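User: I'm curious whether this sequence folds into something compact or stays loose and floppy. Could you predict its structure so I can see for myself?
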Amino acid sequence: MAVEPRNKRGLRTGFTTGACAAAAAKAATRSLVTETNVLEIEATLPNRNRVTFAVHRCQRSGARALASVIKDAGDDPDCTHGAELVAEVELRRDAGVDIQGGPGVATVTKPGLGLEVGEPAVNPIPRRNITEMVEEELRGSLYRGAVVVLSVPGGEEMAKQTINERLGLVGGISILGTSGIVKPYSTAAFKASVVQAIDVAAERGRREVVLTTGGKSEAYAMRLRADLPEESFIQMGDFVGVALKHCARRRLERATIIGMIGKLSKMADGKMQTHAAGSEVNMELLAGFAAELGASEEIQAAIRAANTARHVLELCAASGLAAIASLVCRKVVEHGSHHVAGRIAVHASLVDFDGKLLGAHPPEQDLQDRKDR
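Assistant: Here's the prediction. I'll summarize afterward.
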């Protein structure tokens, strides 16, 4: 399989399970349309880069074809490094691509994950990418749609190294990836990259930085804070404590944290390192926040039993408790300010999974005022 170039630290990047599944589905579709065995396939990643993947297996049987791609996670392999992403495709005359889960792909059993209960754990961006790749191969053929069944041999064992089952993802791994690329970071290297990015912003005279937990939250933050230049945006990952302290060390005036409910709820609990292995969402804390806003005992109990922080947000929104978003932000600000002993101003904004601003502290009007300047 073709690999991405090395990143700035000399580490080789890899590909997500979603990118590999899309390439496998594309190869199986081409095999059916052309009635040939496919040895390699060029696919478009969600970030719109074109990459050629080696096809590990390609088999046809009547109206169906199976193709697979081996995942290469680059120089920072996780438990899915070396996994075989298999797509079995059957073409149909009706339009539409129906994506189903087979052995080794998790099934969603609890709400709050942004996926329907009972559906395979194929996240929206990989799902869209798979659909696009299959439809690309169908152009000019007699077919307008397909059924795609994804499977991962050994996926159920791989999933035991994750927190999937606790989240309600049962029976295998999830098909993930927002860009298609796996960026390798050791803990030390990632911390160094955060520090370096803050240094760059400080050296360029920026007095405020926006700290985000990843590419998706950064994209939303850039929309919210279009008044700031690109170097003011720092992907801190899980290292909020490291980032805030270095901002204070460089004597910046303000650090604004923008993120989604999962990470911000951990920060609201005083966690200055938010990796899943090092901290969990405190449902009791969130139930307490809801109680402050007048939630009934029934709603508080539902929050304590919630599957994810996202699920809590959904419960609160349905119960007229949307103000919990700003309350979470206030707690983030309190803990962040304490962590840096008040040496810089800490602000926080919480966005939903489509980038809509749900709450902020200081209040969101402050953010709007700055956006309008």
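Summary: Residues 64 and 371 are 53 Å apart (CA to CA). The mean pLDDT is 91.
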